[in-house]
Design brief:
- β16 and β17 form a beta hairpin.
- The mean pLDDT is 93.
- It is built from 15 helices and 19 strands.
- The strands form four sheets. Strands 6, 10, 11, 14, 15, 16, 17, 18 and 19 form a nine-stranded mixed beta sheet that branches. A five-stranded mixed barrel has the order 1-2-3-5-4.
- The chain is an alpha+beta fold.
- The two termini are 31 Å apart.
- It binds one RNA strand of 76 nucleotides through α1, β1, β2, β3 and α5.
RNA sequence: GGGCGCGUAGCUCAGUUGGCAGAGCAGCGGACUCUUAAUCCGCCGGUCGUAGGUUCGAGCCCUACCGCGCUCACCA
């Protein structure tokens, strides 16, 4: 016979049907989870098991299948936990033995028998009956080397999860992170809310949006680039402590730190400012690390990070001054800042405005050095259209960004609640748009109307959940912590 | 978008100077009552990413394209 493996599996599927066996039954007869079954018997001796013969039934996917003449072993896996099953020809009907011999790796079965221990000491289910739960028609990745092809790991993540322990570990870790996040915020009285993904006007960040269309309304809509403007409306409405964990969509480049859709936590606390949000951020990240890893000390890309509080708080002015010798506040317009940069022996580049040059200096000379958790604070107002002005310097805002591992993992500020100032900021952004800045914020009259109804002093915080998970999972690429990262369509 | 690298059997990978496309695992047939990467014997399995070109002859050299990775640029 020269059939390939798929054909062979199809043939066995047909044979089952011919024999009157449903290869995809709906019901699974009574069984115990493998994890739960192992617990009471893990340390019980072969002699005791032999004498007691505890009856048991388990269900799982066949991970390995080894057959001898009159003896057969297979390993079942259920929810990540494995257990060996054996069939002895003299103990089962010829039908059951024959059926079991023809099972494929990847099939799901239920096995019923007695808890037992082999001569090699392995806890095993000595089966008397085996039934089909679901046929697997495709061969699974090789048992020894697993699945290494990066593209296949992303496109067919289920294979990655099945064959690479690390993929499973990361998925579990990510889930525990969001659980811990909800626990942390819930304990502090924050309410989880949901706001629109489809928005008539996008806002809350500087980014190009994805555009879509509602057919019946004949309305252009955008996939949100941020939840911010809706969450603030809720604060105005008296929901004083709220958060949302959801996807944002930004129509930009893809890199190991950027996916077109990513998970953002945004939370807002009325009667708080950005200092309070720094306290909250430190406590939150520490709590999450402690919850999922049991420690705030983590290894990230070869460096030990201490995520416990307190984190240094450095103004963006001081950070740039320290790394470049340039004082952005002493050189408070574009030409003088450019000159200061040149005087420091560095290239000011093509930055069109003072604020952008500040941002460039920060990105080039400071950001890569922020390995240990650090708050960078007090950004130029020009870069922060939704943040409240600093009472000490109107050129700056009460804003901070937390950095870990050289990555920006969030953004936060004392929220701008002066509707007239907010209108001016929008208008400034409007001019930038006219000058070709596609990422500048569009005017949002509905949001301004909401602000005019009064928003309390409020602290707002956004955390890039994917990047935080990267740090905790020691992942070098965002795609490792996103189950289905965006890829180009498969070519031919 | 630029640069560099990669793409060979279902999976993991070899493939020499351009000279008949290979191994292990998986699969198929057989042996086997304690294996757990089972073992042993036999067999099947290929659009060498795609399309062109050079050559007597291309997995290998050249060109274009597709996909993936790294990196730079762009970008929170």
């Amino acid at each position: 016979m020269s059939e390939n493996e798929q054909d062979a599996r199809r043939a066995r599927l047909e044979a089952l049907r011919q024999a009157g066996v449903d290869p995809f039954p709906a019901r699974v007869a009574e069984h115990t989870s493998i994890a739960a079954l192992r617990v009471p018997w893990e340390d019980v001796s072969a002699e005791v098991l032999e004498a007691e013969m505890p009856p048991a039934a388990i269900a799982g996917r066949i991970k390995a299948h080894r057959s001898f003449g009159k003896l057969l072993f297979m390993t079942l896996v259920e929810d990540g936990v494995a257990m060996q099953v054996c069939l002895r020809k003299q103990e089962v009907t010829p039908e059951v033995f024959d059926f079991s011999k023809k099972l494929d790796v990847g099939d799901f079965v239920r096995a019923e028998g007695f808890v037992w221990r082999t001569k090699k000491g392995e806890l095993t289910l000595d089966a008397r009956d085996v039934t089909m739960l679901a046929k697997c028609l495709q061969p699974l990745p090789e048992k020894w080397h697993g699945l290494a092809d990066v593209e296949t790991r992303y496109r067919q993540r289920y294979l990655d999860l099945l064959s690479n322990e690390e993929a499973r570990t990361t998925a579990l870790l990510r889930s525990r992170v969001t659980t811990a996040l909800r626990q942390f915020l819930g304990e502090r009285g924050f309410l989880e809310v949901e706001t629109p993904v489809l928005q008539p006007i996008y806002g809350g960040a500087a980014a190009r949006p994805f555009t879509t269309h509602h057919n019946m309304l004949d309305q252009q809509l955008y996939l949100r680039i941020s939840d911010e403007l809706y969450l603030k409306r809720l604060v105005i409405g008296g929901l004083d402590r709220i958060y949302e964990i959801g996807h944002n969509f930004r129509n930009e480049g893809i890199s190991k730190k950027h996916n077109p859709e990513f998970t953002m936590l945004e939370c807002y606390q009325a009667f708080a400012d950005y200092r309070d949000m720094m306290d909250l951020t430190e406590a939150m990240v520490g709590f999450i690390a402690e919850s999922v890893l049991g420690t705030t000390s983590v290894e990230f890309q070869g460096t030990k990070l201490e995520l416990g509080r307190p984190w240094p708080r450095i103004t963006i002015r001081d950070a740039i001054l320290e790394k470049t010798g340039v004082d952005m506040l002493a050189a408070a317009d574009l030409p003088s800042l450019q000159q200061a940069v040149r005087d420091a022996g560095k290239d000011p580049g093509e930055a069109p405005t003072w604020g952008v040059l500040v941002d460039d200096l920060f990105s080039d000379y400071v950001e890569p050095t922020l390995i240990q958790p650090t708050f960078i604070t007090d950004h130029p107002v020009e870069l922060s259209p939704l943040a409240k002005r600093s009472s000490e310097d109107p050129r700056l805002v009460e804003r901070f960004e937390p950095f870990i591992g050289g990555m920006e993992i969030g953004n936060a500020f004392s929220e701008l609640n002066d509707p007239d100032d907010q209108r001016q900021r929008f208008e400034t952004m409007g001019k930038a748009r006219e000058q070709g800045d596609e990422e500048a914020h569009p005017m949002d009259e509905a949001f301004l109307l909401a602000l005019e109804h009064g928003m309390p002093p409020t602290g707002g915080l956004g955390i890039g959940v994917d990047r935080l998970v990267m740090v905790l999972a020691d992942a070098s690429n965002l795609r490792e912590v996103i189950l289905f990262p965006h890829l180009r369509p498969e070519g031919d």
